[in-house]
Design brief:
heterotetramer, A alpha/beta, B alpha/beta, C alpha/beta, D alpha/beta, D: alpha/beta, 8-stranded mixed sheet, 13% strand
């Protein structure tokens, strides 16, 4: 399989944060259908995107991730009713902080993926990986003075 | 007593086994001593962290008394030796800070020494009467 | 708009003190929380005053903001107060108090919030160095020359009329006069009880405030654009934070950072040596203490939605980092996306506790149905 | 006389070369050293894992952005370091580390401790207005002559423990050898000897004590007397304390940077000490007014009872204080006299228990026995 790194020395490190109901379900569906996602994408499962602490995203972006994507249930589908709405606000907040400080709000993505959407999950992983590859390395990950 | 007459307010930390028992005894044997002390019973004098003495002092107590068993008699064998070291630290601190050491006192009072309770409280009350109220009692910027 | 005109021949501070005294003697409140010069004369501290005679030694609207008023109220009224307490605050202190109330850290019952038009405050360190000069500088500040003011004060557009119970209007008023404006039912009731409910025109004040607000807003936009050029981007941001020594004083003086124990001082970020060595090895080295940038960004993610741009953090920073300007810029950005303004209203919910089902459409990365990595790559 | 290594490089270069040698030879997996970061060259401690990372390092810079003893303790608090780490610390930082070890807050295994005879450090404030570079030449000159350098922290001026205890290697900075382009490193332990094996330099015997050190010790003692008897902080009494701490913001900066204050949550910030309405009522019973937040003096004196016995006088607290309270002067003054009571020197002897952890049956017999005749 061609990865985003083909013909390009830079292979981004991607953290893909998935909620344990829909996002992870999407990944499971993908695997049941034999779909592949890029190997540079690492999955991090949380119970609900609403329970994802902002600090975890920040730490990933400082310590090594070139990009962080977050996927939870579609609006209205949250297992905990409103976790994804809160997550959306929290991610919006984080993106705003990163953007205001010029740390690249594009390095953080938020997209809903449902349990059955294996194709969408795989596409998102690949698309985000390509997107980050085009952005280039995250300068924070190599800085000693963070 | 007129409203502005000064009544010393002493906080006493008494260990359960010796000093508190002695205070009981003093009462039972009708020893007379001034009603200036508020007793806080602690299981051992070494339960008294130095900052408790500081808190009482800064909170406006005219004197703070720590009373425990005589050296060698501690119910927990070594507690009062530790109290002694802590108190030495407190004394040294109060001295260095110019707060004087008259308002803090350590006393060994055995379970049978009801009369010493009266002596110690009487003596401390006299000291406080002599040096006057603790200025922390009214200070606003603490 | 109307308000009660009070004579303030010696300045608004005296008018406030008089009001506090009247309130105490007429049992409208049982105590007052008001700044007073400390015995050494070099700074100010909050006093909870029970005895009216002490009020002569207090100074509402001091030249510096030593302890942020909301922080004082947090320590006073977290579990409520006995009776009623009237607190004299700067507008940013009122706004922070409102945020703390929404964060359930201050019980507003029993508090009477009194505010005053704020000309700004001086940098704390400059004042400590020379209180006399500081007092003179503050006089200048009051007469409109804000060159000596703190950077965040220079661009503060929320200097007047917070959601307090009573507000002393001074800007644009004839000298020797001030106006007390009620901002709540409690305030209106108090003015009635004080026999101060009679009407006086506030047109001049409103015009002056609107004009100043416009100026400050422009200055704010400009200052933030300049700041952004100086600090945005990994290089510049880390350069800005390079002198940070992780003392966390910025957080401990912040009125919004109410946590008894900060996440960034907890077990959660305490790592075993293997972890630290591994992280250092990955980058060839690591500054210590660890997680300096994470602390600042993380703190932003925790409190910037409630940041009132009071500048307490910058005043306290031992390394002269423009923390307040940084946080205020980020706070403006994060708050505006939710159309929120910290401290604007007690009833408006915090952005983090509410949501709309249909919002932030632009945030969610649009799904390109046809996207396929294998096809996209050459 | 002690085993020593004489290196024909300036101390700064020699130590950087040594650290590089340790990293390259694998004798150390990482090095803790002062670093200059950013364009501004901010002095900040770094854990460096690659020899090329040492280019910006300034291991001997007379600055203390954090107490390195605290840094090492935070790093090894959960477990000893699995790999060897070399650290360059000032003597008081090393003493802090030893105190923290005694308080079970640090693990010293696998640490190679390199220290220096210390001329003191400059206050953090100097980096905010200008720089350190122009101060370095006069500083080194004073050091060579055994004089008290200008502009260093007040507690450094009064520090008599500038010859390190418990160091594996000691770099001689005070005295004539400091400015002649050579560097003498004294070897105090077998770990130190192993570390130096294979490193360029001439093996000799050297004596650390010199006239310059004697002279400095005498001058520092003089300065200590001066500092601790200065009218504004010596025996201040209650009024004096209120004057000193009146401007305190209760920011806890002093305890946050204090190496000895290791508690994750300070007692004075704990729920026990929360001010409640009834506590305010108690305060106001005898007072016309009371301060908010309450407990300024109680916090400082309370903190003193908790840590002053281990105070190493590093001066971090005063440096970080946003309102310029001479916390360090006061605390090291009190600490010094408290330590005298127990004949204790914080951080000097690893095997000696903390004074409040032990006791003698026959001591302090004057306490508890005296009676006031009534």
């Amino acid at each position: 399989m061609k990865g985003p790194s083909m013909g390009n020395e830079f292979e981004p490190k991607i953290l893909y944060i998935l909620c344990s109901w829909c996002g992870t379900g999407g990944a499971e569906t993908a695997s049941a259908h034999g779909l592949h996602y890029p190997e540079n994408v690492r999955i991090y499962r949380v119970n609900c995107t609403g329970s994802l602490p902002a600090v975890h995203v920040l730490r990933a972006l400082i310590e090594g991730a070139d990009g962080v994507a977050v996927s939870g249930c579609h609006p209205g589908d949250c297992h905990y009713e409103s976790g994804n709405y809160h997550a959306r606000r929290r991610i919006a907040n984080l993106k705003k902080i990163l953007g205001t400080l010029g740390l690249g709000e594009d390095r953080l993505w938020f997209r809903f993926v449902a349990h059955g959407e294996g194709r969408r999950f795989v596409d998102t992983a690949a698309e985000f990986s390509d997107h980050i590859a085009a952005l280039g390395p995250n300068p924070l990950t190599t800085r000693k003075d963070t | 007593m007129s409203a502005d007459a000064f009544a010393p307010n002493i906080i006493g930390f008494f260990c359960n086994w010796c000093s508190y028992t002695a205070a009981d005894l003093a009462g039972v044997s009708r020893k007379k001593y001034p009603p200036t002390v508020r007793v806080i019973r602690v299981m051992c004098s070494s339960r008294v962290d130095p900052h408790m003495v500081v808190t009482a002092f800064v909170g406006g107590a005219d004197a703070v008394l720590v009373a425990g068993c005589h050296p060698g008699d501690c119910h927990y064998v070594t507690g009062n030796y530790r109290t002694r070291r802590r108190f030495a630290l407190l004394q040294s601190m109060f001295e260095s800070l110019g707060l004087g050491t008259e308002r803090i006192k350590l006393a060994w009072i055995g379970a049978s020494e009801g009369s010493i309770v009266a002596d110690v409280i009487g003596g401390l009350t006299e000291t406080v009467n002599r040096i006057g109220p603790n200025p922390t009692r009214q200070a606003m910027f603490l | 708009m109307n308000g009660a005109t009070v004579a303030a021949p010696e300045g608004v501070r005296e008018a406030i003190t008089d009001l506090l005294k009247r309130g105490l003697s007429e049992k409208l409140w049982d105590a007052a929380l008001v700044p007073a010069r400390v015995p050494a004369g070099d700074s100010f501290a909050w006093l909870l005053v029970r005895d009216g005679s002490v009020l002569d030694e207090t100074l509402p609207l001091p030249p510096v903001m030593a302890v942020q008023g909301a922080r004082a109220i947090y320590r006073l009224a977290r579990r409520g107060v006995t009776g009623k307490v009237a607190a004299v605050l700067r507008p940013c202190e009122v706004r922070a108090t409102i945020e703390l109330a929404k964060l359930k850290q201050v019980d507003l019952d029993g508090l009477v919030l009194i505010s005053v038009d704020c000309p700004g405050a001086l940098p704390l360190k400059a004042y400590l160095d020379d209180p006399q000069k500081g007092d003179a500088d503050f006089e200048k500040l009051c007469s409109g020359d804000d060159s000596a003011a703190r950077e965040v004060c220079k661009v503060c557009h929320l200097f007047s009329r917070p959601v307090s119970d009573l507000h002393f209007a001074t800007f644009g008023m004839d000298s020797g006069k001030s106006c007390v404006v009620a901002g709540s039912d409690q305030g209106r009731l108090l003015l009635e009880k004080l026999g101060m409910a009679k009407a006086g025109s506030l047109d001049k004040w409103e015009r002056a405030v609107a004009e100043r607000q416009e100026q400050k807003k422009q200055a704010r936009t400009k200052a933030q654009a300049t700041l952004s050029q100086d600090v945005a981007g990994a290089d510049k941001l880390l350069e800005t934070l390079s002198h940070c020594i992780n003392c966390h004083v910025c957080r401990s003086v912040c009125p919004i950072c109410y946590c008894r124990q900060c996440y960034f001082e907890s077990q959660a970020i305490l790592m075993p040596p293997e972890n630290i060595l591994e992280r250092a090895r990955r980058k060839g080295g690591m500054r210590l203490p660890t997680d300096t940038l994470l602390f600042h960004l993380g703190r932003m993610s925790h409190m910037s939605l409630s940041c009132v741009s009071c500048g307490a953090c910058e005043d306290a920073c031992p390394s002269a980092i423009p923390v307040a300007q940084l946080f205020s810029m980020v706070g403006d950005a994060t708050q505006s996306q939710f159309d929120y303004e910290a401290g604007r209203s007690v009833t408006e919910p915090l952005p983090t506790v509410t949501y709309k089902e249909d919002e932030l459409a632009g945030l969610v990365a649009p799904y390109t149905e046809t996207y396929d990595a294998r096809e996209a790559s050459p | 006389m002690t085993e020593a290594l004489k290196i024909t490089k300036t101390p700064d270069e020699a130590i950087r070369a040594l650290l590089a040698f340790l990293l390259e030879s694998g004798k150390a997996s990482a090095v803790l050293s002062l670093d200059r970061i950013g364009q501004d060259g901010a002095p900040i401690y770094s854990l460096i894992t690659e020899a090329k990372g040492l280019e910006s390092a300034a291991p001997l810079l007379p600055m203390m952005p954090s107490n390195a003893g605290k840094l090492l303790a935070e790093m090894t608090e959960l477990a000893p370091s699995p790999e060897p780490i070399a650290a360059v610390l000032k003597p008081c930082e090393l003493r802090a580390l030893v105190e923290l070890k005694k308080l079970n807050q640090a693990n010293l295994e696998n640490l190679l401790l390199i220290s220096t005879t210390c001329g003191g450090v400059f206050p953090l404030a100097i980096r905010n207005n200008g720089g350190i570079s122009e101060k370095l030449a006069p500083y080194r000159e004073a050091l060579a002559k055994g004089e008290v350098a200008d502009g260093i922290r007040p507690t450094c001026r009064a520090c008599e423990h500038f010859v390190p205890y418990n160091a594996d290697l000691t770099v001689a900075l005070v005295g004539g050898q400091a400015n002649d382009g050579t560097c003498t490193v004294l070897i105090n332990s077998s770990r130190g000897a192993e570390a130096l094996e294979g490193f360029e330099g001439e093996r000799t015997q050297a004596k650390l004590e010199s006239d310059a050190i004697e002279a400095l010790r005498a001058k520092r003692a003089e300065e200590a007397t001066k500092l601790f008897t200065a009218s504004d902080t010596a025996a201040p009494g209650l009024d004096g304390l209120i004057n000193i701490f009146g401007r305190c913001l209760a920011c806890r900066g002093c305890s946050n940077v204090c190496p000895i204050c290791y508690c994750e949550l300070c007692y004075f910030d704990s729920v026990v000490e929360d001010p409640t309405p009834s506590k305010y009522e108690a305060q106001l019973r005898h007072r016309k007014a009371t301060r908010v937040p309450p407990g300024t003096i109680a916090f400082h004196l309370g903190r003193m009872t908790h840590m002053v016995i281990s105070c190493v006088g590093c001066g971090m607290c005063a440096d970080v204080c946003p309102v310029g309270i001479p916390v360090a002067t006061l605390f090291s003054m009190v600490g010094k006299s408290a330590d005298k009571v127990f004949a204790y020197v914080p951080g000097k002897n690893l095997d000696e228990d903390l004074p409040l952890k032990k006791y003698e049956v026959d001591e302090l017999s004057h306490l508890g026995e005296e009676r006031i005749e009534s």
